[in-house]
């Protein structure tokens, strides 16, 4: 059983649930003067007002009894008018209360989701959570559906829970005055019995809610897979396979729902038993003073019974409505556990990320300072690479916040072992590598030998199993850009694809000159047709770019990012594998012309022409570095074609 499964087995309606709920409450109430706090107190006020009006409304029937007994027509008219006023006020208060409740629910949802997004998109938490750390299932579902249910349930039950003590206290006093201690105790006895039975029945149901939510997430994910990969599935004519698998995840979900429903039978049974017992017990409570002779024979029993039965019933109602909340509390407990688990995991990843970032940048500073010291001492470098490092250090390799400043070294890897997550076998061992300006590096090797993994470790997605990885440069596309193996296209216009990872600021739109540059870049790659298809550069065609473009077009669009941003370093993973050699040459030479230092991962030998160092992995942990000697004109970006347009 996995760690995640063990955790979902250990959930219930207990102290752990309350401590997790408290964490969430601290997020959804960001401060004393925040909107959610204001809305919450307004809601509380409306709830009290509703109760106040309900009390007077409840006494109206008993007053009618008295009016009829007295044959008082004038009082009857007055009472009717008063009742109409009360009805109008209570209807207004309840509808405004429901409105505020809904606004509070969506405000909480926004606050909680934004807090989760902040953590999720901080550093590489989204990557770690989805790829590396598997302790939390379906984070997407937790942030969408579970947060929604949590906020909705919380907004409907919190005020009930808060005003209950006041409501119960007041009606207990009234019942005690009317029926004495025996009536009060019998009502309370019923409530405590109901609470104990409910607590026993409720707690085991929580884990079934958690399981059902998990299956719900898996089911949705399966549908999402089919949506994203519909073309590939169609090529395999594998609709039947996907249909079977989707039905399988549906069946698992239905089974989980059925199990939950089975458990809920008992919960509902106890709930309704206590509901109906409640309606009887109020009359039993009134019977005590009546049969006990507390009222005189000539007293108007029917109006007294009506008045007392109202307070008794209201006390019973207040108590049983707490018990009635059990099914909502079960749901709340289930989603609280799921959302809190996500928050806890994100906090853990955030802490790890902060430590790693601190470690890598301080390692970088230490390494570069050591290099400087060594060069001052005049130590002889033992290898070519050391010579170069020292050369760079002497030039004053300072890491600055300014992304326009030239960076001589972007990354340093020293004695690094790379191990894939969940594996024990090293893909690459004792790797020494520094990515420095002007040294275009090509990484080759058999499939699965760990070529992309080197980029993952450089990017900080995977930790190095041993050794030091150091990098320290400002974020943003002007210093370093990575192009992953799978082209990444976002939603939005063609312009947004090319300026990615920057985004259009609606207040400061991309200038016409920049658009002209982008258009000429697209022209030079014969991609003007795409601009027309997308309805213009700035137009959002509202399509899924991954479905709308061919793999070659996707690679060309992604590569154009490099030529648009012109970073100092570009680390590209098989970014031209779907392109013709012609286009590959055109793109690489443009990069060289713009003085972009390239680190490429690839299989094609044609790539050697654009690099001067070759790192070859042997697939069993070993590696070697060689210099690639070029014919002079081979790497001359101007030799064959004028690249100025790019
Ligand atoms: N997220 C992951 N979790 C666990 N193992 C992984 C993960 N990603 C990759 N691996 C494993 O790491 C190994 C190296 O993968 P990598 O992507 O670095 O290979 P590669 O040399 O780039 O291969 P190719 O040439 O086929 O792209 C593979 O065996 C792969 O299965």
UniProtKB/TrEMBL annotation:
Belongs to the ABC transporter superfamily. ABCD family. Peroxisomal fatty acyl CoA transporter (TC 3.A.1.203) subfamily. The keyword Transport applies. GO terms for molecular function: ABC-type transporter activity; ATP binding; ATP hydrolysis activity; long-chain fatty acid transmembrane transporter activity. It comes from the Eukaryota. This is ATP-binding cassette sub-family D member 4. Pfam families: ABC_membrane_2 (PF06472), ABC_tran (PF00005). One of its GO terms (cellular component) is peroxisomal membrane. GO terms for biological process: fatty acid beta-oxidation; long-chain fatty acid import into peroxisome; peroxisome organization; very long-chain fatty acid catabolic process. CDD domains: ABCD_peroxisomal_ALDP. It comes from Cherax quadricarinatus. Keywords: Membrane, Transmembrane, Transmembrane helix, Transport. Residues 38-334 form the ABC transmembrane type-1 domain. SUPFAM superfamilies: ABC transporter transmembrane region, P-loop containing nucleoside triphosphate hydrolases. PROSITE patterns: ABC_TM1F, ABC_TRANSPORTER_1, ABC_TRANSPORTER_2.
């Amino acid at each position: 059983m996995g760690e995640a499964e063990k955790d979902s087995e250990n959930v219930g309606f207990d102290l752990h649930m309350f401590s997790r709920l408290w964490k969430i409450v601290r997020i959804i109430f960001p401060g004393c003067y925040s909107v959610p706090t204001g809305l919450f107190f307004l809601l509380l006020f409306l709830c009290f007002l509703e109760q106040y009006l309900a009390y007077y409304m409840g006494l109206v029937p008993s007053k009618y009894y008295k009016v009829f007994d007295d044959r008082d027509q004038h009082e009857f008219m007055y009472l009717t008018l008063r009742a109409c006023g009360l009805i109008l006020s209570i209807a207004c208060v309840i509808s405004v209360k429901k409105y505020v409740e809904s606004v509070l629910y969506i405000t909480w949802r926004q606050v909680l989701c934004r807090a989760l997004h902040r953590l999720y998109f901080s550093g590489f938490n989204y990557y770690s959570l989805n790829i590396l750390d598997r302790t939390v299932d379906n984070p997407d579902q937790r942030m969408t559906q579970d947060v929604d249910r949590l906020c909705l349930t919380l907004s409907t039950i919190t005020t009930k829970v808060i005003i209950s003590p006041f409501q119960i206290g007041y009606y207990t006093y009234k019942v005690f005055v009317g029926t004495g201690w025996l009536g009060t105790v019998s009502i309370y006895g019923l409530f405590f019995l109901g609470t104990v039975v409910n607590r026993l029945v409720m707690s085991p149901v929580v884990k079934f809610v958690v399981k059902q939510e998990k299956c719900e997430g898996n089911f949705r994910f399966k549908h999402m897979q089919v949506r994203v990969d519909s073309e590939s599935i169609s090529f395999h004519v594998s609709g039947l396979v996907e249909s079977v698998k989707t039905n399988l995840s549906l069946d698992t979900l239905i089974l989980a729902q059925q199990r939950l429903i089975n458990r809920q039978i008992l919960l509902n049974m106890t709930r309704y038993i206590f509901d109906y017992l409640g309606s009887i017990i109020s009359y039993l409570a009134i019977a005590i003073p009546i049969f006990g002779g507390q009222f005189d024979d000539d007293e108007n029993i029917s109006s007294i019974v009506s008045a007392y039965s109202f307070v008794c019933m209201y006390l019973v109602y207040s108590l049983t409505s707490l018990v009635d909340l059990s099914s909502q509390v079960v749901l709340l407990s289930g989603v609280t556990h799921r959302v809190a688990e996500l928050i806890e995991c994100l906090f853990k990843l955030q802490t790890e990320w902060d430590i790693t970032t601190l470690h890598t940048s301080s390692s970088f500073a230490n390494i570069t300072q050591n290099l400087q010291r060594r060069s001052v001492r005049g130590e002889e470098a033992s290898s070519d690479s050391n010579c170069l490092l020292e050369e760079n250090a002497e030039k004053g390799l300072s890491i600055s916040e300014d992304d326009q400043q030239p960076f001589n070294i972007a990354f340093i890897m020293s004695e690094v072992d790379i191990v894939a997550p969940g594996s024990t076998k090293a893909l690459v061992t004792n790797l020494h590598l520094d990515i420095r300006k002007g040294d275009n590096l090509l990484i080759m090797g058999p499939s699965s030998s760990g070529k992309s993994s080197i980029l993952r470790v450089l990017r900080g997605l995977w930790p190095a199993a041993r050794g030091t990885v150091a990098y320290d440069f400002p974020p943003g596309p002007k210093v370093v850009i990575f192009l992953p193996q799978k082209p990444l296209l976002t939603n939005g216009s063609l312009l947004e694809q090319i300026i990615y990872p920057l985004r259009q600021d609606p207040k400061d739109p991309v200038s016409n000159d920049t658009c002209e540059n982008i258009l000429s870049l697209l022209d030079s790659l014969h991609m003007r047709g795409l601009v027309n298809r997308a309805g213009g550069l700035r137009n959002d065609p509202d399509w899924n770019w991954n479905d709308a473009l061919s793999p070659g077009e996707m690679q060309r669009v992604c590569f154009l990012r490099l030529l648009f941003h012109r970073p100092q370093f570009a680390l590209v993973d098989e970014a031209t594998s779907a392109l013709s050699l012609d286009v590959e040459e055109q793109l690489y030479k443009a990069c060289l012309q713009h003085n972009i230092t390239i680190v490429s991962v690839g299989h094609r030998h044609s790539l050697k022409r654009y690099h001067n160092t070759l790192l070859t992995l042997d697939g069993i942990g070993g590696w070697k570095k060689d210099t690639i000697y070029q014919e002079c004109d081979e790497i001359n970006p101007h030799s064959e074609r004028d690249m100025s347009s790019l």
